[in-house]
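Researcher: I'm preparing a figure for a lab meeting and need a structural model of a single chain. I don't have an experimental structure, so a prediction will have to do for now. The sequence is pasted below. Please return the structure as tokens so I can convert it later.
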Amino acid sequence: MRVEDAVPVRSFRWSRGQEHFPGWWWLATTGRHVGYESWLERDHLMLLDFDPAVTAVASQPFWLHWDDGYRGRRHAPDFFARLADGTGVVIDVRADDRIERQDAEAFDVTARACGAAGWEFRRVGMIDPVLAANVRWLSRYRHPRCAGPPGVADALRRVFAVPVPLPTGAAEAGDTLAVLPVLFHLMWRRELAADLGSGPLGPSSLAWLAAGAR
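Model: Understood. Here is the structure written out token by token.
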């Protein structure tokens, strides 16, 4: 069984008054729902879904057991991602200012175990808020139903062969209200590129046909 097809080794819990926010993310990459236990985990899951190099993601994929010299310990990493080149990536999500001593030990043990298994290990923290906000907006258009008629997508590819402001390109491709969902869907799919880190997407934002796009 592939690790990316594993079911979570522990359940996600919802209770009144809890400080974290678990939920399920519909992963456009695979068409499956993947669980998360905080909004930070959700945003990292969103970025994995947005990354064209990622082909599959599983949450809480396995338990790692070890003895710290005093007692038995165990840790379930947050995510396992499979990349297009076959690489396995184990991911733990924790903000830098929330890493306690035992957390640091768990991440170190996990990194060494991943090295022995031939996997990559990443401990990721806070995300640039501008990037997160822009990708979160595009994620609303990740479902294939936003692809629209083929003619609209082809028109957008022609219009954005050179950098053009978003509303200008949408108007040139057809009716703006009908075209914008397709435009954002192509941006989610990385067929159209834009600078997502310098500021919020808006009327002055430029987009262009990404390298390798049809």
